[in-house]
Design goal:
By secondary structure, this protein is mostly beta strands. The chain contains 1 helix and 31 strands. The two termini are 25 Å apart. 44% of the residues are buried.
């Protein structure tokens, strides 16, 4: 999500090799960004030279930077030698940088102002599937995870691998970062049915959360009753909520009738909620305080990914299409 001309917009990408920009107030497509030559797998947004930009990555091994005000591509970042699975943006000094991970097992860091690749971080021995960024000891770090069953922590300023977190027994599908008791932590989700919590300052695994009965596909973090919680979703059709302080599963949200592919978290009327999307062609909204499913949206195809905006807008990837939903009426009902 981003703002253009003072209005909320959504960016979506897919297997039609394009990135599209949508005005969420009107539902109109305002930009159609073309140039990728294969599926676009990940999108991040940032400010660059005082203007909103998108950074996109995909199966054509490339990373591209777009000025969203004009729709023009301003950078074409080449260096990966395989599919680029995910991109996030981090601030190094006073300049925005992109961190990208790919099938060739590498992590690359790009200065978005110049287009230069400033870091090529190697150590993973398989596909890198997920990346998050956070501050650790006052410096920006990346946390990466993938097929080699490991989670690795990188100092983006020096390029050094500062942590190698082992313990997963299958590929790691998703990583999220959060603070727990004032210290940075990572939460990782695995195909071995488990969720693990890591203290990034020490490298220790402090929690091993067991309850899912199949691959865990997605993890998000939120605050619930003043404590950090993780929300996970997987192939066992369930969504589970975990108190990261105690390690206890506090909610088991049942309602999906097939694999749950994606979870995102938001606040409605001051309370934390989760929005989930699955193979059962539904998007469900859950009150994390009570565990109740407040509403279900049925879609024409499998719901692959869900993203949220603070204004109560949901953007769902559905096959080759994008469905835009609003949570505003639901929020009004909760008042």
């Amino acid at each position: 999500m981003t703002g253009l001309d003072g209005r909320p917009h959504a960016l979506t990408a897919g297997d039609d090799q394009s990135v599209r920009v949508w005005d969420l107030a009107t539902g109109e497509q305002t930009r159609h960004l073309t140039g990728h030559t294969d599926w676009v797998l990940s999108v991040a947004v940032t400010g660059l030279d005082g203007r909103p930009h998108a950074v996109t990555a995909g199966q054509d091994w490339s990373v591209r930077v777009w000025d969203l005000a004009t729709g023009k591509r301003t950078r074409h970042l080449i260096g990966h030698t395989g599919r680029v699975n995910s991109v996030v943006v981090a601030q190094l000094g006073d300049r925005p940088h992109a961190v990208t991970v790919g099938d060739e097992g590498s992590v690359r860091v790009w200065d978005l102002t110049t287009g230069d690749r400033i870091r090529h971080l190697t150590g993973h021995t398989g596909r890198v599937l997920s990346v998050g960024v956070m501050e650790l000891e006052g410096r920006p770090h990346a946390v990466t995870a993938g097929d080699d069953r490991s989670v690795r922590v990188w100092d983006l300023t020096t390029g050094e691998q500062t942590r190698h977190l082992t313990g997963h027994t299958s590929p790691v599908n998703s990583v999220a970062v959060t603070e727990l008791e004032g210290r940075p932590h990572a939460v990782t989700a695995d195909q071995d049915w488990s969720v693990r919590v890591w203290d990034l300052a020490t490298g220790e695994r402090i929690r091993h959360l067991i309850g899912h009965t199949s691959s865990v596909n997605s993890v998000a973090v939120t605050e619930l009753e003043g404590r950090p919680h993780a929300v996970t979703a997987g192939d066992d059709w369930s969504v589970r909520v975990w108190d990261l302080t105690t390690g206890e599963q506090t909610r088991h949200l049942i309602g999906h009738t097939s694999s749950v592919n994606s979870v995102a978290v938001t606040e409605l009327e001051g309370r934390p909620h989760a929005v989930t999307a699955g193979d059962d062609r539904s998007v469900r909204v859950w009150d994390l305080t009570t565990g109740a499913c407040l509403t279900t949206y049925y879609l024409p195809a499998v719901a692959r990914a869900v993203t949220l905006a603070a204004d109560g807008t949901v953007v769902v990837g559905v096959g080759h299409d994008v469905v835009v939903l609003t949570l505003a009426p639901l929020a009004r009902r909760l008042r």
